[in-house]
Amino acid sequence: MRLFLILPFAALAAGPSSSPAPTETSAEATAIARAEAAAVRLGSTLKARVVEEMGKGGPVAAVSVCNVEAPALAATIQSETGVTLGRSSLRLRNPANAPPAWVQDWLLAQGERLAAGTTPVATVVDGKARVIKPITVEAPCLACHGAPVAIAPAVKAEIARHYPMDAATGYAVGDLRGALWAEAAVVP
Question: Domain extents for the chain?
Answer without folding.
Answer: 2-11+23-185
